[in-house]
From TrEMBL, chains A, B:
It comes from Niastella yeongjuensis. GO terms for biological process: negative regulation of DNA-templated transcription; regulation of secondary metabolite biosynthetic process. Zn(2+) binds at C98, C101, C134, C137. CDD domains: Fur_like. This is Fur family transcriptional regulator. Keywords: DNA-binding, Iron, Metal-binding, Repressor, Transcription, Transcription regulation, Zinc.
Amino acid sequence: MEAQIDEILKKNQLSVTGSRKRILELFLMSNGALAHGDIEKKTGEKFDRVTVYRTLQTFLEKGIIHSIPTSDNSVLYALCKDDCTEGHHHDNHVHFICNKCGKTICLADVTVPEIKIPGGFLPQDYQMVVTGLCAECR
Amino acid sequence: MEAQIDEILKKNQLSVTGSRKRILELFLMSNGALAHGDIEKKTGEKFDRVTVYRTLQTFLEKGIIHSIPTSDNSVLYALCKDDCTEGHHHDNHVHFICNKCGKTICLADVTVPEIKIPGGFLPQDYQMVVTGLCAECR
DNA sequence: GACTGACATGCAACTTTGTTGCAAAAAGTT
DNA sequence: AACTTTTTGCAACAAAGTTGCATGTCAGTC
C-alpha cells in the first residue's frame, strides 16, 4: 500500500507529502467515490481545509482522480483508471449512486453507451449517473 | 404566456404570487437551463435571495422543474415536460453542456439509453450528461 | 368587497463551502 | 548540511445555502 501510494505520486511528479499520502490512501481503501466533506471528516484535525481542497485540485489536474456529477449537486471524486493521463480522462464507466446510503460506486464494467447527438453539437465527453438502491440497501 | 403561467401554478395547487410568476416566466422564455445565480441576476432586486431558493425548492417538489448534474458541480434547473408528476420525474432526455459558453441545453429528442446494470443494484433513474461544443461555439 | 385562515415573503443572523495572499515549514536536490 | 522549490497552515474573505420569525399577500367564504 505504502509503496503503491508513493509510486502513484512519483509517477505524476508530485512530492510525497503527508496529506497527499493520507488522501490517496483514503481513495485506495474506499472503492467508491468520496465527497470533499467525507475526506475532511476522515482526515480529522490532521490537515487544514485548504490543504484538502488543494490536494484534490492537484489530483484532478494530474488525472489521478476524476469528479462525478451528481443529481443533488454535491462534488464527488473517485480514482481514475491507469489509462487516465493529464488533461484527458478516459473515464467512460457508469456511476451508481444509492438513494439510501448515499454511497457512490463506480461500475467499472459498465461503459457509457455512445449515443447519437443532433448535428451541430460536437460531443467530447459522455457521463452517465444511475441512481437507485445498492445491493446492501435494497 | 400569462395564462400559461397561471395554469401551471394552479395545476400544481400553488398560490399565484409575484415571484413564482416571474421565475416561471424566466424558465418559459429561456429554453435552456438556468442556474440559481442566473435567476437572481435576472429578477434583479425584485425578490429576496431566500424567496428564489424557496420557489425553486417548491417547483422541484411539484415536478415543475428538475435539477441537472453538471461536470463543474454548479446547480442547474430546467422545466420539466408535462408528464412529470410530483415525486417522480420522467425526465429521460440527455443534457448537453457547452465547454465554451457554459450553456446547458436539453436534448429533448435524445432519450437516455437503458443500460444493463449488474445484479444486486436496483436502478431507479438514469441521467446522462454530454459535454462538448454547442453549435454556436464550435 | 371585506374578513379570515393558510401560505408566501422578507429580513436578519447564521452555517457551510470554497477562494486568495502570504509567511512558515517541509520536501527534493546538490 | 545548505539551498531552492513546493506545499502547508493561518487568517481573512467571498459565495452559497439555511433557519426562525414577524409581516404581508393569496384564496376562499360570507
